[in-house]
């Protein structure tokens, strides 16, 4: 017998797919002749169509942000702690839209999709996409849904970059922008981590130049290594120490290079194994490149304040003290630029030991601050 869903859950949800037949020009110079976006919605759109909120996902995220896909599903969407009745993004007030970005591997058009020009999967031939491309495709989805203006565009990490880009590309279509654990551009160190992860995939013998689907294989080892490298950067030293310390998985040391002896080794291998079974290697390459390329101030001679000159939204920035991937200093850069541009901005720095992944975790102070801002949004 199915277990009842929690009272504060959006409950059973069904993904929908929107087909776009109009070509989409991309920043790389290529275009998609047509594409599909898969998305989910939670809550009800009001008569004035003024209560819509867009959720933008991070690197490995997707459209399933809240609720459950079937009655026996025990694992809710990736941001279920923040979306639902009585939660910060309250579905009694807001109509929430969450989608899987172009280039993804969870239902939207991406490398695993069939290229209509060849009748075979795009694979390595799928064009490089940028944050700006994603926002343009999201704007088309908003048009289909009849949403002229978002009450808020919200995202963490790479999702926060999309939220910021919305205020630049479509200033009149965003009333509030909430960017969490994000940055105005990647540091050299972050680009370096992404490149190490990409090289792990590219150098896997099973990668086959990106056309591994045609070979009936996946570059599992490369994906595992990429995820392991990435996962280390999402956690803080404190959180890893608290979870694992130097605890041994076995009773004694084996004095070799192949045994899994420490608990942290076991954890990373598990994360890599699980990820390699559900995520596409070409999508991973695309997502990390989109991160690397994000630098909206480049078009304004590096002046971030000028970049936001035309923005009409009110902004809320949140960061976490132990996030060394996108440190509080990076959010503060955005805050200072917005102040210089004379924009309305709120900022909350949360003391949390979990590192970059803290934005996915129901930390009480974080949820209170998040809810406090969302409660002030008029619909």
Walk across the major sheet and give the strand order: 1-4-6-5-9-10-11-12
Q: How many strand elements?
A: 12
CA-atom Rg in angstroms = 21 Å
Structural class: alpha/beta
- Proportion in helices: 25-40%
Distance between the termini: 39 Å
Report the uncertain regions.
none
Order of helices and strands: EEEEEEEEHEHEHHHHHHHEHEH
Mean pLDDT: 94
Number of helices: 11
- Shape descriptor: globular
Percent range for β-strand residues: 5-15%
Biggest sheet descriptor: 8 strands, mixed
Short overview:
It is built from eleven helices and twelve strands. It has 379 residues and is an alpha/beta fold. Helix 10 links the parallel strand 11 and strand 12.
Model description:
The chain is α/β, with parallel strands linked by helices. Helix content is 33%, strand content 14%. The protein has eleven helices and twelve strands. The protein has helices at 131-145, 158-169, 188-202, 212-215, 220-234, 237-243, 263-276, 281-293, 304-307, 328-340, 364-375; strands at residues 16-20, 24-25, 31-32, 35-42, 52-56, 95-99, 114-115, 120-121, 152-156, 176-180, 314-320, 345-350. An eight-stranded mixed beta sheet has the order 1-4-6-5-9-10-11-12, sandwiched between helices. A two-stranded antiparallel sheet has the order 2-3. Strands 7-8 form a two-stranded antiparallel ribbon. Strand 2 (24-25) and strand 3 (31-32) form a beta hairpin. Helix 1 packs across helix 2 (158-169) and helix 5 (220-234) crosses helix 7. It starts with 15 loop residues before the first strand and ends with a helix. It is an enzyme of class 2 (transferase). Homodimer. Its main location: cytoplasm. Substrate binds at residues 227, 357. The record marks 325 as: Important for acyl-CoA specificity.
């Amino acid at each position: 017998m199915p277990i009842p869903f929690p009272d504060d859950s959006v409950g059973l949800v069904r993904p929908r797919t929107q087909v776009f037949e109009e070509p989409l020009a991309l920043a790389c110079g290529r275009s998609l002749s047509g594409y599909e976006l898969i998305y989910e919605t939670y809550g009800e759109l009001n008569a004035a169509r003024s209560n819509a909120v867009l959720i933008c996902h991070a690197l490995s995220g997707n459209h399933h942000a809240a609720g459950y896909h079937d009655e026996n599903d025990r694992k809710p969407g990736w941001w279920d702690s923040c979306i639902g009745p009585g939660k910060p993004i309250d579905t009694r007030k807001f109509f929430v839209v969450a989608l899987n970005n172009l280039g993804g591997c969870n239902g939207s058009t991406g490398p695993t999709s069939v290229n209509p020009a060849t009748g075979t999967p795009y694979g390595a031939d799928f064009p490089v996409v940028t944050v700006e491309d994603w926002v343009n495709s999201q704007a088309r989805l908003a048009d289909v849904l009849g949403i002229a203006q978002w009450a808020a565009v919200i995202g963490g990490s790479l999702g926060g970059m999309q939220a910021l880009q919305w205020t630049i590309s479509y200033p009149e279509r965003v009333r509030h922008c909430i960017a969490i654990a994000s940055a105005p551009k990647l540091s050299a160190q972050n680009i370096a981590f992404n490149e190490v992860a990409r090289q792990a995939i590219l150098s896997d013998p099973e990668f086959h130049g990106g056309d591994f689907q045609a070979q009936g294989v996946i570059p599992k080892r490369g994906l595992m290594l990429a995820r392991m490298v990435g996962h280390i950067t999402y956690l803080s030293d404190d959180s890893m120490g608290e979870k694992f310390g130097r605890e041994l998985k076995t009773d004694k040391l084996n004095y070799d290079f192949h045994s899994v002896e420490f608990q942290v080794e076991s954890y990373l291998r598990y994360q890599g194994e699980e990820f390699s079974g559900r995520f596409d290697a070409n999508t991973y390459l695309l997502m990390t490149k989109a991160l690397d390329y994000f630098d909206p101030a480049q078009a304004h001679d590096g002046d971030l304040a000028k970049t936001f000159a035309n923005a009409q939204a009110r902004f809320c920035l949140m960061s976490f003290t132990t996030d060394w991937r996108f440190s509080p200093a990076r959010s503060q850069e955005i805050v200072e630029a917005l102040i210089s541009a004379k924009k309305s901005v709120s900022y909350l720095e949360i003391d949390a030991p979990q590192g970059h992944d803290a934005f996915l975790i129901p930390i009480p102070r974080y949820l209170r601050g998040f809810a406090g801002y969302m409660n002030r949004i008029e619909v």
